[in-house]
Structure formats: C-alpha cells, structure tokens
Amino acid sequence: MLKVTDLKAGKYITIGGSPFEVLEYSHAKLGRGGAIVKTKLKNLKTGAVLEKNFKGQEKIEEASLNFKSSQFLYADDDNFYFMDQNNFNQFSIPKEIIGRNANFLKSGGTIEITFLYEKPINIKLPIKIDFKISETEPGVKGDTASAATKEAAIETGFRLQVPLFIKTGDIIRVDTRSGDYIERVTW
C-alpha cells in the first residue's frame, strides 16, 4: 500500500480493480483541513483519463504490473499473436485489448506489452513508426484548392491523409497517437 503523498507521475496504482497510471500529481493544503492530493489518472485498460482527488491520509494499492518487450507475429479474426523477446514464448491478445493500435502493428515490429497479474491488458506502441505506402492516387499538379492532401493506405491497411507529393512505395513516418502523417522518410 502506498500513502497518497508517495504518488508521483509515472506510478501505477489500482482503484476498484482497474490499473491506472498517474499522469499528473499536485499536493494542496487546505486552511484548517487536511491535505488534498489532486491527480490525473489514465486507466490502462480503457485508455480513459480522469481526475481524482484523495485525502492526505488515504492509502492506495500499488498495481502489480510487468512490462515485456514483445515482437508482433501475426493476427487472425479474433487475436493478435506475439513472442516474448526474452524467453521466445508465444502468446495471444484478444482484438478488444489491442483496439485502434491494430492500425499500426507491423509484422516483426517490437512493442511493449503491459501485464497485470500475468494477464496482458495493454500495448504501448512507439510514438512514431515508419510505414510503406501501399496505395495512393497520383497527386494532380495545381490541385491545391483544399489543404493539398490526399488519401493513402499504409502497409497495415490503415488509411490517412498525406501530402500530394507522396506516391506508392514511399516510406512515411506516422504518429501512432493520432494516426497523422509526420514526414516522408528518405533512405
């Protein structure tokens, strides 16, 4: 058990059986009353962010989380399959846990998986990943009436807006948090 005053950004706690990451933490002392700790927490199962206040004397359960570097192997209709980089054991994670991150999983790519009591609950992708453009229309010169973008598909099938100069076969860098194009990668 942790004292509320031991909380810091980056700590992992359990509230109501769900694991949370402390994103922000501030300590406030009220006039005659006791201290209050204000936190911003991210639910590791759902990704929802909430603000929660604790009284200065409260105790909180520290989450028993493990993080494993794993390689994405393949997916089928219901599950995504990974290999633990340390012991080479293979395991699966249901599609519901992966969520929208499935758009950015490349075969052979390495990611960090969060385990709560040895059960996978979340995956953490790198913020930026490079992808090959698998399909896009050719850009029409002078077609700049709008923001000068067009739709393209990356190798995972995810579709996003890219600048007109991007063509099929180009390598681009994508922000996995938003799914936005960042830049073209030159080799």
Account of the protein in words:
The chain is mostly beta strands and 187 residues long. The chain has 3 domains: 2-62, SH3 type barrels (Roll); 65-124, OB fold (Dihydrolipoamide Acetyltransferase, E2P); 128-185, Nucleic acid-binding proteins (OB fold (Dihydrolipoamide Acetyltransferase, E2P)), CATH 2.40.50.140. It has 1 helix and 16 strands. Strands 1-6-2-3-4-5 form a 6-stranded antiparallel beta sheet, with no helix packed on it. The protein starts with a strand and ends with a strand.
Radius of gyration: 21 Å
Indicate the structural class: mainly beta
Mean pLDDT: 86
Count of DSSP strands: 16
Identify the strand order in the major beta sheet. 1-6-2-3-4-5
CATH architecture of the largest domain: Roll
Summarize the SSE layout with pairings.
Layout: E1 2-3, E2 12-15, E3 18-29, E4 35-43, E5 49-55, E6 59-62, E7 65-75, E8 79-84, E9 90-94, H1 95-98, E10 110-116, E11 119-124, E12 128-136, E13 149-154, E14 159-163, E15 171-175, E16 180-185
Antiparallel strand pairs: 1-6, 2-3, 2-6, 3-4, 4-5, 7-8, 7-10, 8-9, 10-11, 12-13, 12-15, 13-14, 15-16
